[in-house]
Amino acid sequence: MELDSNCHSVFLLYYHLVLVVKYRRNVIDDTISEFAKDMFVRIGVPYHITLVQWNHDKDHVHIMFKTHPK
Fold first, then answer.
1. Per-residue pLDDT tens over the stretch 18-53
2. Strand 14-20, strand 60-66: pairing
3. Are 47 and 15 in contact (CB under 8 A)?
4. Are 47 and 5 in contact, with CB atoms under 8 Å apart?
5. What integer pLDDT is reported at residue 42 of this predicted model?
6. What is the pTM of this model?
7. Distance separating alpha carbons of residues 63 and 40, to the nearest angstrom
8. pLDDT the model gives residue 6
9. Helix H or strand E encompassing 40
10. Are 65 and 52 within 8 A, CB to CB?
11. Radius of gyration of the chain (CA)
12. 3-state helix, strand, coil in the chain (%, to 5)
């Protein structure tokens, strides 16, 4: 287990986020999932968010990421 650090602290923050489609409709396919994943990575760069794992099904997406405390 590798700990992260900044100037005054040592930390290890992992978040598990589940995004669900309204009414659990089956609309997520590989193309939509890849687009959402690319957007997540692009938006996360200035916030020091690192994508650890990305999984999807037809009606939801599981995201595990780590970040700096702010």
1. 999 999 999 999 999 999 999 999 999 999 999 999
2. antiparallel
3. no
4. no
5. 97
6. 0.86
7. 10
8. 86
9. helix 30-44
10. yes
11. 14
12. 30, 35, 35
